[in-house]
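Z., the sequence and structure:
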Amino acid sequence: MKQASLRIACALSGILLYATGVGAQRGTSGSTATAPAAAPGTVQAEPPKDALGRETPRGTLLGFMRAARNRNDEAAVAYLNTSLRGQPATVLAHQLYVVLDTRLPARLNEVSDRPEGAVPNPLKPDVDVVGTIATGGGPLDIFVERVNRGASGRIWLFSSRTLSSIPDVYHEIDLISVDEYLPRLAKSRIARIRLFDWLVLFVVVPLLYYVIGLLGKLFRPVIAFWRRRYMPAAAARLEPAPGYIRLLVLAVVIRWLLGSVDLPLMERQFWAATTAMFAVVAVVWMLLLTNARGEAYLRRRFAGPGHGEIAAPLRLVRRVADVIVVIAAGIITLRFYGFDPTAALAGLGIGGIAVALAAQKTLENVIGGLSIIFDKAVRVGDSLKVGETSGTVDYIGLRSTRIRTPDRTIVSVPNGQIANVGIETISSRDKFWFHHVVGVRYQTTSRQLRAVIDGVRNQLAAHPTIDVESVRVRLFRFGPSSLDIDLSAYILASGWDQFQEIQEELLLGVMEIVERSGTAIALPSQMLYVAEGRPVDAVTGGAAATGERRRGARDSVGSP
């Protein structure tokens, strides 16, 4: 009667929809147009929820496993698309449960939880795969198919093709069962996992971790010999059995036992998640140690002078690599547990943009520091001048560069500023310019002047640190109070201190040459002529032209 009433209601709804469509095309009045308001609510009413949760492939799989585990045979048979009834259907449901409970891969999160399924084959949209098991005849796909059950709507059931292969697979199962060896207390469950499994996880696994370390010590002589033979540099640094190797061994052992011991599906999923976590932690641990050792190796490799600034970018690269490893491990873990990390990655991208905008000055300094380091424009120990700041580079960091001034103070200059201004690197000079003007007094004769010029030229040319091709000694002007000689040459010195030492020696030699020539270095002076006892000419402002002048000299600084 209920199905007949539902059919009548559907027919009436179709008639109303047709009438509404015709009325809309003909432009009927408002009273006629009000009819469709109730029609959509009748036609688009959602079908009732399935009491057994068979709307999705995952719901069918979990519901069947729950019903079969609770020995609810009638409910378990309701998940099968079979024509069998009574005892044969119950036996088939039991066999399917045993096969799935012992052979189905423990990846329930990968089973689709959508009403339309995962649609692995677009040509068969109503068929989905919940897993693949290994059999003696090869891999067997476990299919569920979507069928229409009238008033119950469309539900997912285990396909008849899969059910036809289950009896043969059931007879192949010969796993070792541990239930018969366990006491009653160990079979009690905590969070649907037996107490036995929890004891193994928190007692047996740590004990095995320790035992594997002892085995590593037993093989220490063999490992040490192999390292001395093939890896002499690493013999003193590596341990025989690092922690990440122990975790990998535990993961392999547990994985092997899962294929040999009869465990329920939920417990196999529990141990599969445990082994996956062991493997992820071991790989992350190994990669983090590799990053640290790589940084230490590069630090030793570039520990010489002129490479002190490489420490900061190496630390940055290591930290970035560590973050990438941890994020990748987190994404893999989320994917394993069935979470889609796309939204999290999108959120991280938006957050990264916000952080970049908020810290653009810091990023500018970091990028400037990297450009300084890789371009080698500035190195630790260089003497330079940046704007009004001069001194010796003490440290090059990612954000700023520290310069020690001649007053022994530290000035921190942002790397962004250094990258955008002109830098005068004093210590990078290959030659130092020796340039001075020597003035001799006007009482010097031409012969004395030639002796001074030739003597200074010979002294510069004979000095071992002077670039001979650059020596220039010339009388270039008659100055206000002296005859000026220009001295110019390039000194090949390793640093500023050596240049100052050589310059001092050369200047003292110039003084000796001037003294030996019979003249002297002039002092700045001027001559004043004063007229006495004569009227001043009103026109010229000086003494009368016809008067007799008396010359007097007064030196403002000293006499030449």
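Confidence is low (pLDDT under 50) at residues 1-45, 233-238, 538-560. The CA atoms of residues 383 and 427 lie 5 Å apart.

Let me know what you think.
H.
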